[in-house]
Amino acid sequence: MTANPFPPDVVTAICTHMNVDHPEDNLLIVRAFGGPDDAASARMTGLDGDGADFAAAVGGAEAEVRVPWSRPLTERREVRVEVVRLYQEACAKLGVEPRQEGEH
Question: With a threshold of 0.85, does the pTM exceed it?
Answer without folding.
Answer: yes
